Amino acid sequence: MAQAEHDREWKARRDAEAEVTRLRVLLSGQAAKLTAMSGEDRRRELRQQMSKELNDDLSGLEHDLSRLKLERDMTLAEMEELHSANRYTILLSNVIPIYLMFSIQLET
Question: Is the dihedral of CA 58, 63, 68, 70 positive or negative?
Fold first, then answer.
């Protein structure tokens, strides 16, 4: 009878150890899944952060481009104005001597 009791306890202990091993494997699998999910969440957050930074950088570049286009347009307008003024000055410098020459001739 003691042997039968011993065998039952030994079998129960072996079954319990097998159940503990099975539960450890299950827990390990769940921990791996959680780690993978955490990694995916971190990668997703990193992608979102990078996307936001890229959008911010793009907005900054668009602003800089607009400012540079405005500066270019203003510089071109100033150059055209200077060119026109220069042409007018050249025209006057050619006309005034002729006018003075005619004035002097008319006076004499």
Answer: positive
Cα separation of 30 and 35, whole Å?
Answer: 9
* 28 phi, psi to nearest 5 deg: -60, -40
pTM value > 0.70? no
State the Rg of the chain over Cα.
46
CA atoms within 13 A on the CB side of 38: 6
| 59-95 residue pLDDT tens | 999 999 999 999 999 999 998 888 777 666 666 666 6
CA–CA distance, 12 with 24 (Å, rounded to integer)? 18
Dist CA 32 CA 43 (whole Å): 16
Question: Per-residue DSSP letters for 5-45?
Answer: HHHHHHHHHHHHHHHHHHHHHHHHHHHHHHHHHHHHHHHHH
